[in-house]
Amino acid sequence: MLDALQYYGAGAATIAAFIVSLNLGRRITGWAFVLFVTSSIALIGWGFLSEDSEGIGFQNIALLLINLVGVWRYLISRHKPRD
């Protein structure tokens, strides 16, 4: 189970970062942030359940908050981003 959390978190973050880098538009970028959120949740679980990995857990708590801002900005908020 811990290996699955670790590898899912790493893989999902990599795919999400690639999607964001492609700049395919607001909606697709928003869904990439949803993928980032699932990655952060997996890595929080892995970080606190694995021995000596709390640093990754704490880092991903911060990243989860950042990623939730991305979900808000790209999928939920109706305000257009500034150029």
Kindly summarize this structure in a few lines:
This protein has 83 residues and is mainly α.
Structure characterization notes:
The chain contains three helices and no strands. Helix 1 runs antiparallel to helix 2 and helix 2 packs antiparallel against helix 3. The chain has 83 residues and is mainly alpha-helical. 82% of the residues lie in helices and 0% in strands.
Shape: elongated
Q: What is the chain-wise order of helices and strands?
A: HHH
End-to-end CA span: 43 Å
Structural class estimated from helices and strands: mainly alpha
Instruction: Give the strand tally.
Output: 0
Keywords: Membrane, Transmembrane, Transmembrane helix
Key structural traits:
83 residues; mainly alpha; 3 helices; 82% helix; 0% strand
Topology at a glance:
Layout: H1 2-22, H2 26-49, H3 54-76
Helix pairs in contact: 1-2, 2-3
